[in-house]
Amino acid sequence: MPRSIPAPTGAAHTPAADPRNKVPDPTTSFWVVKVLATTVGETAADLVSTTLGFGLPVTTVVMAVVLVFFLVLQFRGRTYRPSVYWVSVVLISIVGTCITDNLTDGLGIPLAVSTVVFAAALAVVFTIWFAVEGTLSIHCIDTFRREVFYWLAILFTFALGTAAGDLIGEQTGLGYFPALLLFAVGIALVSVLFFVFRFNGVLCFWAAYVLTRPLGASLGDLLSQPVADGGLGLGTIVTSALFLAAIVVIVATVAVRLRRRRAGVLSGRLVA
Fold this sequence. Notes:
Blueprint: H1 28-51, H2 56-76, H3 82-106, H4 111-133, H5 144-172, H6 176-195, H7 201-224, H8 235-271
Helix pairs in contact: 1-2, 1-3, 1-7, 1-8, 2-3, 3-5, 4-5, 5-7, 6-7
């Protein structure tokens, strides 16, 4: 889905055009960083809890506290700030992974149950969001209430994507690469629905957002897991570092371009 989804009203509600919108427009760079962030969510959770030996409960608590800190920064800001936003996404990806892993490994809750519960929770958030705001569009996240709905939806999409991805992987016995292809095909089908058949843009966006979670997780597992287990053996440290570096480069580039566009708009207004 390389181009942005039009706003329901037909207006161009993008961060560059409307500084009140506090989340990015779903362009190509958005989807690339989203996949990178979900991959880091998978590998970084394993890195901290297993490789570094902190354990899953401690990792969950620490990452949740750091997430809350960055969400406070996100909510206090008046415009879309790429660095704060994407750090929050990476952290919420890690926390979403930890929540699902705690339910499965810690409490023994079957993945099928977790998947249904998270899907129901996401549906509840969407239902209330739409009932209150009249839209689920991410092109007009410009109030505190809409931002609360937005981040709740993001959290449950990550948790749902983790549970559903693990469920499919365990039930079918797919390897990492076949699973990666499966979720890539799912995203391609959503893209066809949107671009070819002009299916509802908001629905396509959220469907793709859920699917990128298991896609990124499969990519992370493929790269980090040992060769004997079907991976490429890079390890969680190398994989996390590579993807974090890529995120930093892309987000920094986006931030510079956004700053220049906003400066251009401001200077144009001053001249006018």
